[in-house]
Amino acid sequence: MIEGISFQDQIPNNHCFGCGTKNPDGLQIKSYWRSEDEAVCTFTPLAHHCAGPTHYMNGGIISTLIDCHSVCTAIAKGYQMAGRRIGEGETIWYVTGKLEVSYIRPVPIDQDVELIARIETAKEKKITLSCELSSEGDVCAQSQIIAVRVPVSWFG
Amino acid sequence: MIEGISFQDQIPNNHCFGCGTKNPDGLQIKSYWRSEDEAVCTFTPLAHHCAGPTHYMNGGIISTLIDCHSVCTAIAKGYQMAGRRIGEGETIWYVTGKLEVSYIRPVPIDQDVELIARIETAKEKKITLSCELSSEGDVCAQSQIIAVRVPVSWFG
Q1: Which residues constitute the domain of residue B73?
Q2: pTM of the model
Q3: Which of A81, B6, B29, B63 has a C-alpha 20 to 30 A away from that of B47?
């Protein structure tokens, strides 16, 4: 368990299905730095997050976890680069430009999954990340994400 | 509206979050051939499928729709190549090996989305597809999917 307040509990006005604290019907993931450029997330799948067979996780839920954990890590990095705490001052927001996921092995639904997102390159307008999802120590999915900064007006 | 029975209503024992008829808490997408190698799907987003702002769709739900529509199209193609109706005889099943999604523009949550999956290459063990997701006639996401055949024992 990582100490401190999750990224999501500091990001304001987030209704996102995957990561919004304001979405009671969403996945409500929680992400934390474990170093300056690496963030972790642990998620407990629910029964209805299954694939065709009920004992494996759905690939779409897997990609949602990867996407949201990575984009929240990009947002946290954006604040870190600006020298501000998450949520402090003008809102910083990134969205996914591109997501690539390789599914390596099935993910058991009855175990927690662990995600590690790593910042690969970071500029104000674009952050690239890699992200791995593991179950019981085995890497089950590997991914690359391009996160793109969008203006606050995106919230229209 | 395309006539006939959807792929999902013919695929047996499918509990998948995105496409399973046996998952009452899932997205329950419906896919149909519109030609020998092209399949379509229309989906009505729910309010909690939103992104950070409530008026756009979450990228993870978008990737789930693309993934499930494409894999169901691969399964349908598998039966087509075997000269059987979907669900007839020994179960044919494909899973996602790789998913690449480019998010081109935000997807309004208050409109239906349309997906078109196209078979690019088809062999028994591996089918590659492209898939586009559109809203009000504008392409919002483009993707490439590699679907891999798995044995029935995968359902173990």
Answers
A1: 31-155
A2: 0.97
A3: B6
